[in-house]
Structures are given as C-alpha cells and as structure tokens.
Amino acid sequence: MDDIRVLVSIDFGTTYSGFAYVHKENQETVVVNYSWPGKEGVPKAPTALQYDEEYKNVTSWGNLALEEDPDEVPDDTEGQRPRPVELFKLHISNLSKKELPWLPPQLRYTKAIEDYLTQMRKLIQVTLERRWPTINFPQQVGFVLTIPAEWPPHTTKVMRECAYKAGLLPSLNSQQLEFTTEPEAAALHCLSVIKEHNLQPNDSFLVADCGGGTVDLTLRKLLPENKL
Prior knowledge:
Blueprint: E1 6-12, E2 16-23, E3 31-32, E4 35-36, E5 39-40, E6 45-46, E7 48-51, E8 58-61, E9 85-86, H1 109-131, E10 141-147, H2 155-165, E11 177-181, H3 182-191, E12 204-210, E13 215-221
Parallel strand pairs: 1-10, 10-11
Antiparallel strand pairs: 1-2, 2-3, 2-6, 4-5, 7-8, 7-9, 12-13
Helix pairs in contact: 1-2
C-alpha cells in the first residue's frame, strides 16, 4: 500500500453512481467527478446499461443508456433498442424473487455489475491519467467502495469479484480495495460540517441516508477530537 498515490471512492448506487478522488500528498483537496458521457456538470450518472440485442455487449451506459426509453417507442419502429438494464444492484440484497427488479434471462446480475464497474473504471482511469500522466493504474490507486449496511455477508465478496473483473484491481485479493457502509460514509461526511450545526462533543445526531433503492438510519455520537 506504500505505492498508492491516489485514493478513489466509488458510490455504486441503485439508481445513480459517482466517484471522487484525492492525491495522498494533497489530502485536503477531494475532487468530485462532474463529467460523464452524455452529460456535464452533475456529480452522478444513472446506474443503467444499454446492451445489444443479445444482452452480451454494452453499447452505452449512464445517461446515454436512458436517452430513449424503448417502452415509449412505437411497436412498429424498426431497429428498436433493447430495454435498458437498471436496478440490478438490488439482486445482491435479501429481496424475494417476486420483489427483484427485471433482468433479461440471459444476463446475470453479477455480469451487469461487472459491466457497469468496467465502464466506470474506464472513465476513472482516463480522468486520473489526464490529471497525473505518470500514474500506474491500477497499481498506484486505492479504492473505497460503499455498500448498504444491512445487506447479506456475501455482498463484499460479490463486489470484490466484480471490481477485479472490471479491472479496478491488480489481483482478486488485493488490499487496494476497502469497503465501508453507506451510513458510515455519510457520518464521516457529517464530520466536515459539524461547525455549521454547532455540534459539540457528546452530542448525538441522526444520519438519514435516502438513496434510490435503500434508506439507512444511523444514530451517531460525537466524541472529543472529532471521533464518532
């Protein structure tokens, strides 16, 4: 881990995803990505994929995958695109089969996650190499990936395998990937704004993380030296 130059955090969400990065020599300057295929100036892109007719190869992702909803195209339109794949993250959860969102029968949810992370990896790599041309990706990059708090234990195993296959890691068991729960990440962010709310040591606060597919509530207590 001594060779890590840049740390990247990935918020892989049910409906939207994003990433931010920071150089270890300038840890106060966290850069949030606002540039996505098909859209500029927003911190996140839809967690959506557009595939070819066989659902084997990704043809577009994020905003571009949702540019045209096939359900709104007339039935007699030739060359109609296959239905975009969304909400596939929920297939890791404990939802019953009846509650799980639609996936084409020939596409496993792990393949969809891998494909989406692959597209994010390409964008992250281009972004970092443009900013630091000499960086060795992914060997000199560390990653933090958020996961819902109450999801099953195999969540980290699935996400690690998908991240590796997506090219984010040099090896499957690489220590360059760490996980944190979404409420923990939100609580750490709250530490950066405690002065705005006049919080003092021993004060408690509630973090409500309202995402596109999950909602987490976490009660935290502020300790001396900005610890939780």
